[in-house]
Amino acid sequence: MKKIAQRQKLVHYSASLIGGFMAGYTVFNHMEIMGNAQTGNLIKMVLDMCRGDLTFIWFMALSFLIYCGGNVFYVLVRRKVKISMKIVSLICTSAAVVAVGAIPYVRNDYVACYPIIFAAPIQWNAFKIAAGNSSSTIFSSNNVRQASMLTTNYFLTRDKATGAKARFYWLTLLSFNSGVAMAGLISVWLGVFSIWFCFVPIGITVISYYFYMSEKLRVAALVA
Questions:
Q1: Which terminal residue of the chain has fewer beta carbons within 10 Å of its beta carbon, N or C?
Q2: What whole-number distance in Å separates Cα of residue 179 and Cα of residue 72?
Q3: 137-151 pLDDT per residue, tens
Q4: Phi, psi at residue 161, to the nearest 5°?
Q5: How far apart are CA 137 and CA 128, in angstroms?
Q6: pLDDT for position 104
Q7: CB atoms within 10 A of CB 6
Q8: Pairing of strands 129-130, 133-134
Q9: What is the pLDDT of residue 222?
Q10: Considering only 15-24, 104-113, 210-219, which range has the smallest mean pLDDT?
Q11: 120 near 97, Cβ under 8 Å?
């Protein structure tokens, strides 16, 4: 069981690479829009409304609806299909990469981010739990909170389980920001065409998931 948990964590770290890459790609190449989350976009939309600047408000409103649509899609597909939602997420992310890569010269940066905006919440929901830890693979706020609080508790109590949990969140943050760095460095060289390199962390996640499922099935066969 311990080996299964370790491999599940590796899947989570790999998915965090994807999340970081997508975040880094959209921020670097598309007007500093973070396609993975809606907090910044909603703040910008409300502030633009307060200023009376309606230039991009419809694009931002549509990005909000598309993000909601990704969550709706997850709920509906989870109820209707029997395959793992992690596989569904990887398929959706791959389709988003192809869609963004096929229209790299689209003039409006919000439109260029729409496929990623749709795929991101699907990934968030599909990879939200790893070895009993609740953690996002597409942004960092809660991971920072958990990592800092658990680390503090560990130094106060010296509890090994708390230390292990803290390490999980720090490694998730490291993985996410490694994905950001990957996207940023490649974007310096290739610009919007760097999106195709997202298939590297996608491939790593596919391999990690394969080994995780293989171990899970092996243990299940032994128990049976």
A1: C
A2: 26
A3: 999 999 999 999 999
A4: -65, -40
A5: 7
A6: 63
A7: 12
A8: antiparallel
A9: 79
A10: 104-113
A11: no
Token pair listed for 52: 């009376």
Determine the longest span between alpha carbons in the chain, in angstroms.
65
Q: Distance between CA 219 and CA 80 in Å, rounded?
A: 28
- φ, ψ at 86 (rounded to 5°): -65, -40
Place of tokens 């032994």: 222
CA distance linking residue 198 with residue 51, whole number of Å = 37
* pLDDT reading at 223 higher than 80: no
Please answer whether residues 9 and 168 qualify as being in contact, where contact means their C-beta atoms are separated by less than 8 angstroms: yes
The pLDDT tens digits of the residues spanning 24-50 come to 999 999 877 888 888 888 888 899 889
Decide if 198 contacts 97 (C-beta within 8 A).
yes
SS3 134: strand
Give the C-alpha distances (Å, rounded to integers) separating 172 from 8, 191, 220: 12, 26, 28
33 contacts 41 by C-beta, under 8 angstroms: yes
What would the two tokens of residue 94 be? Answer: 């791959």
Could you give the C-alpha distances from 220 to 8, 19, 74, 83, 224, in angstroms and in order?
Answer: 15, 31, 27, 18, 6
Contact assessment for residue 124 and residue 136, using Cβ atoms and an 8 Å cutoff: yes
Amino acid occupying residue 116: I
